[in-house]
Amino acid sequence: MSKQPRGLGRGLGALIPTGPAVVTETPASMTVTLPAPEPVVPEQPGPRAVMGAYFMEIPVGDIVPNPRQPRDVFDEDALRELATSIGEVGLLQPIVVRATGDGKYELVMGERRWRASKLAGLSEIPAIVRSTQEDKLLLDALIENLQREQLNALEEAAAYRQLLDDFGATHEQLATRIGRSRSHVTNTIRLLNLPATVQRSVAAGTISAGHARALLRLEDPAAQEHLARRIVAELLSVRAVEEIVAVGDAKAASAPAPRAPRAKPAEEPALRHLADRLSDRFETRVKVDFGRRKGRIVVEFATIDDLERIIGTMAPGSLQPTEG
C-alpha cells in the first residue's frame, strides 16, 4: 500500500527528537579520562531533546487501543469526515503512544485520529512515543521547544491544537510561555479551519499567515478558496485582502432585495460556448456580452506579463519590435 500524505507539517513531531535515546553504561572498573575543556559555543536555535519522549512513524497495525480508554463510542460520520481530511492534507497532529515491549504500542492519546487514519488508508502514522508518566514534564519541554523552533504557520497551529487537546495546556499558558498574545494563539489555531487547498497554499508559502487570517473572516469555504486563488494570481497584499473582505461584507449587508431574474436572451448558450472556447484558448477568463445594438468581449489578465502572453496568443509576432 502506498503511503498517504504525511501532512503539511509535523506539528509536535517537529519539536521532538526522532528515535529513542541511546544510553550507554560504563563498567565500574573502567577508568575514564576526561577530555580537555572545549571552547564554549553559543547555543544554536532549534529543538532540545525532550526527556521521556521521542517522535517516530509507526505502522498502524502495531498500535493497540488503550483498554482504559473511557470513550468507547465514536461518531462514524465524524470519523469519515476526519479520514477525508487526513487523505487530503495528512495527519497534522501525531498520536501519543507508549511502547509495550513486544514490538507493539499502546495508545495514550489520539484514538480518534488513529481510527480515522486507518479509514484513510495510512500504512504508518506519526506518533510521539512517551516513556514517562510525568505529563507536566513533557508539556514543559514541548512548550520550550515550540518557542525555539521555526515552524511554518500550519505546523505552529497543529502544535498549539495538540498541546491544548492532549496535554491540557491553556491559551493563556501557551501565550505566556512563548511570548505571544492570547489572540495570536487563538487566531493561529483557527487556520486549521481553512479548506485543505488553502492550507496547502499556506504551508507552501504562496499565501502568508496574514492572508490566511484575513480569509477566515469569510464564512463560505468556496469564497475562501476563490479569494486565495486571487491572492496568488494577483499578488494581493494582506491589506488588500482585508479591504476586499470588508467591502464584500458591507455589500452583502446593504444589498437590496434580489430582483426577479430577467429572461435570458436566446443566444446566451451560444455566447457561453464561445466564451468557454476563448477562455481555453487564452488560458484566462473571457466574457462575451451581446446587447441590443452591439457586443463586447472582455479578456481578464493578472499582470503585464500575462497581458503580453495573451496578446501574443491573439496575434503572434505583433509585439516584436519593427525595423526601420
Layout of helices and strands, plus pairs?
Layout: E1 53-59, E2 63-64, H1 76-89, E3 95-99, E4 105-109, H2 111-120, E5 124-130, H3 135-148, H4 153-166, H5 171-178, H6 182-189, H7 196-204, H8 209-215, H9 221-234, H10 238-254, H11 268-282, E6 286-290, E7 295-299, H12 304-314
Parallel strand pairs: 2-4, 3-5
Antiparallel strand pairs: 1-5, 3-4, 6-7
Helix pairs in contact: 1-2, 5-6, 8-10
Distance between the termini: 66 Å
> If strands are numbered along the chain, what order do they take across the biggest sheet?
1-5-3-4-2
Low-confidence stretches: 21-36, 250-257
Main beta sheet = 5 strands, mixed
Q: Helical region count? A: 12
* Rg (C-alpha, Å): 28 Å
The proportion of strand residues reads 5-15%
Structural class: alpha/beta
Helix content estimate: 40-55%
Organism: Streptosporangium longisporum
Pfam family, one: ParB_C
Keywords: Chromosome partition, Coiled coil, DNA-binding
InterPro entries: Chromosome_partition/occlusion (IPR050336), HTH_ParB/Spo0J (IPR041468), ParB/RepB/Spo0J (IPR004437), ParB/Sulfiredoxin_sf (IPR036086), ParB_dimer_C (IPR057240), ParB_N (IPR003115)
Structure write-up:
This protein has 324 residues and is of the alpha/beta class. It is built from twelve helices and seven strands. Strands 1-5-3-4-2 form a five-stranded mixed beta sheet, covered by helices on one side. Strands 6-7 form a two-stranded antiparallel ribbon. α1 packs across α2 and α5 crosses α6. The protein starts with 52 loop residues before the first strand and ends in a 10-residue tail after the last helix. 25% of the residues are buried.
